[in-house]
Design goal:
Structural class: alpha/beta
Shape: globular
Radius of gyration: 12 Å
């Protein structure tokens, strides 16, 4: 069974992220998702956050270099407050500001 998906540098936009979210909503085997170096931005991150509230199998999510700003980071951090499965999150090299750092601190 397929447990890992790697879409690194695949030119995925927020619209593409929305399609991936549909998989996350119903998947009960996917444990790792790599979306590093795409362009999902805040809109795609918000979609992913909604899926993280439902998904109970994903353990690793890589979102580095996706042009995600404070709105998207805050959405993901908020979703992770109710997610007990995800243990690895890479949000490096996005558009981080004080609000992002505050949301990360509250999530931890």
């Amino acid at each position: 069974m397929l447990a890992q998906l790697n879409f690194r540098e695949s030119k995925i936009s927020a619209k593409g992220a929305k399609a991936i979210v549909e998989v996350l909503r119903v998947s009960n085997i996917l444990t790792s998702l790599n979306l590093n170096q795409n362009k999902i931005k805040d809109e795609g991150a918000k979609e992913l956050a909604e899926a993280l509230m439902i998904n109970k199998t994903l353990r690793a999510l890589k979102l580095a270099k996706n042009k995600i700003g404070s709105y998207g980071i805050k959405s993901i951090c908020s979703a992770l407050e109710s997610n007990e499965t995800l243990t690895e999150l890479d949000i490096s090299n996005n558009i981080m500001d004080y609000l992002c750092m505050q949301a990360i601190g509250e999530m931890l």
